[in-house]
Amino acid sequence: MKSKTFVTKPSDIERRWWVVDATGQTLGRLASKIAPYLTGKNKPYYTPNMDTGDFVIVVNADKIRVTGKKMSEKRYYRHSGYPGGLRSQTLEELLKKHPTRAVEYAVRGMLPSTALGRRMLKKLKVYAGSEHPHAAQKPEPLEL
Length: 144
What we know:
Elements: E1 17-21, H1 27-39, E2 55-59, H2 70-73, E3 75-79, E4 86-90, H3 91-97, H4 101-108, H5 115-121, E5 124-126, E6 140-141
Parallel strand pairs: 1-2, 1-6, 2-5
Antiparallel strand pairs: 3-4
Helix pairs in contact: 1-4
């Protein structure tokens, strides 16, 4: 008797919603726990060329912690495309202006840099406070 190779089809994919409380969590460790849920690596039918992942809601993103001197020394860069257009800001400045972006950038760095990775990133929802508008999806708490 031959065994058949299982191939995941779009109809096999079952998406769930998870909610993560970032209060007191270390930024990088939190991101490394969230990334497998977005890619679908926590599921038995994971397929590298398909988006089999779940939706993840991160609340209290403004209450994350970092170790060492990262608040003052870690820098985020962006470039306008024009000569002299390089801009940078520290993690502390980023958290003051846009408290959700630090988590988004950390998770984005742990996903593939492809069109599939960009599709996975759209399933990440980050909020600074404890409220989120996704109660209708009945998200389950994810203990990390």
